[in-house]
Design goal:
The chain is α/β, with parallel strands linked by helices. 44% of the residues lie in helices and 11% in strands. Strand 5 and strand 6 form a beta hairpin. The protein binds uracil (URA).
């Protein structure tokens, strides 16, 4: 168990899970109320995709569609991501698992605040531990900021598109990508994002064989 809390038996039960499917089931059943987002959410959104895949994509927090369906990245941004990757021979639901830093929808789709991120952090860290991915793709600045906490004052322009390794995830190749919602807002960035995704898929195909 990674972040045992003497006084939080519900959290401890989730973190005591022996496998990723058990973790997911227990977290959903927990009806978590560790932060204020509990009041407005419909579903706890744990992920979407294949936990066996070894590719982990990390976003920010669920939006309205995700909250309704209980699955990550099923709205317009997720559909764009799926489509861009499918064109490169990568099927998101089969070849990756997508999660978010925060599991419940912030009202008005605002960015999650520090309290919310910290409340959810034990679950986020447990996902990283149980999944032990070979590739980590960080979708946007919020995912980068909360996944690699030692990265401060970064510029997305400098971070996106190249592989690097990080001491916290020694087994993984890490890449920062633009958030697909940013591409929806500024389609001129799409060719750059395609270039980055192509770089990732090329490396992933080598590992897959
Ligand atoms: N944006 C995110 O960061 N995550 C989702 O699940 C949906 C939209």
């Amino acid at each position: 168990m990674s972040q045992f809390d003497l006084f939080d038996t519900t959290q401890n039960k989730v973190l005591d899970s022996r496998s990723y499917p058990e973790f997911k089931e227990t977290l959903i059943a927990s009806n978590c109320d560790k932060c204020e987002l509990f009041h407005s959410r419909t579903n706890i959104v744990v992920d979407r995709g294949n936990p066996e895949s070894k590719v982990l994509m990390i976003g920010e927090a669920p939006g309205a569609n995700e909250d309704m369906q209980g699955k990550a990245f099923v709205g317009r941004a997720g559909q764009l991501l799926d489509q861009m990757l499918a064109e490169l021979g990568f099927e998101t639901n089969r070849d990756s698992l997508i999660i978010n830093v925060v599991k419940c929808r912030p009202p008005e789709n605002r960015a999650p605040n520090t309290e919310e991120v910290n409340a959810c952090r034990p679950y986020f860290k447990e996902q990283l531990k149980l999944l032990s991915p070979k590739f980590i793709l960080l979708l946007g600045a919020v995912a980068l900021k909360h996944t690699l906490r030692d990265k401060k004052d970064f510029s997305m322009k400098e971070e996106v598109g190249s592989f690097f390794s990080h001491t916290e995830f020694p087994q993984a190749k890490v890449m920062v990508l633009y958030h697909p919602a940013y591409i929806l807002r500024d389609p001129r960035k799409k060719p750059k994002m395609t270039e980055h995704l192509q770089r990732f898929v090329t490396e992933w195909k080598k590992l897959k064989g």
